[in-house]
Amino acid sequence: MDYVRPTAGTATVLGFDAQQETRAIHERVGILPDGYGLYDRLSGRKHLEYAISLKRASDDVDDLLDRVGLDKTAAERVVGGYSKGMMQRLALAIALVGDPELLILDEPSSGLDPNGVRLVREIARDHADRGKTVFFSSHILSQVESVCDRVGILNRGQLVAVDSIDGLRDALGTGSTVTLTVDAVPDSLTLAEINGVSEVAVDDRTIRVRVDEATAKVDVIDQVRSDGAAVLDVTIEESSLEDLFSAYTGDAPRQGDAPEGER
């Protein structure tokens, strides 16, 4: 976006040089920054009219208001009287002006109630479903997990991993936990013989099995039945994005903290 000049290197956005072709980038990008400024004495509607004019777009203000769930009556009031959630909805509407090819959402759920958070997810998914790109940045990892097709993990300013969530799991070999509730645990369980099973725990009528390979999940269920138990319930837990984030960043040394032999 050329808001900050680099000390070295180059960058492109949608194929355009980030320092030399900023106008072309701004016309194609919508951004909801974490920190933004709105004009206290300007109404919500005037903000949108100005954004549409600035981007030379043809959006309908009322359509944008409906899309972000901002009341049309509230849009006639000056922004200085808005709540944090209302300002966030207005800023999101501004970001959507021009139906941008790239929509950048930085902590988009800040100040929103649960309905607003759900609306942001729906807007992000709808934008992506129409062939656009959404860059979604958040510290609330459960939201990232529910929205994003691919995830990038930053650790102290360095990009340490980029992949789908399943790809990140596979790369770390975090595996899954299969939990079965049975009518009675067989006297002799043979689950340890299955390839991909790394741990088996039994508690009353519950069998928990840690598997490192996806194909082992079905094998575990079939084997429990073969061993003589009736399976009443099955749940499968995958590593959450929070678990993956900790795995990728938790043991990384701080910059400058290299071992003595490497200093």
UniProtKB/TrEMBL annotation:
Origin species, per record, is Halolamina pelagica
Enzyme Commission numbers on file: 3.6.3.19
Q: Does the keyword Nucleotide-binding apply?
A: yes
Q: Which residues form the Daunorubicin resistance ATP-binding protein DrrA1/2-like C-terminal domain?
A: 166-247
The entry's family comment says: Belongs to the ABC transporter superfamily.
What EC class is this?
hydrolase
**Source organism's superkingdom?**
Archaea
Q: Which InterPro entries match?
A: ABC_transporter-like_ATP-bd, ABC_transporter-like_CS, DrrA1/2-like_C, P-loop_NTPase
| PROSITE patterns in the cross-refs | ABC_TRANSPORTER_1 (PS00211)
Is Hydrolase a UniProt keyword of this protein? yes
**What keywords tag this UniProt record?**
ATP-binding, Hydrolase, Nucleotide-binding, Transport
ABC transporter domain location is 4-109
Q: What is this protein called?
A: Trehalose/maltose import ATP-binding protein MalK
Q: Which positions are tagged coiled coil?
A: none
> What's a Gene Ontology MF term here?
ATP hydrolysis activity
Database matches in Pfam families: ABC_tran (PF00005), DrrA1-3_C (PF13732)
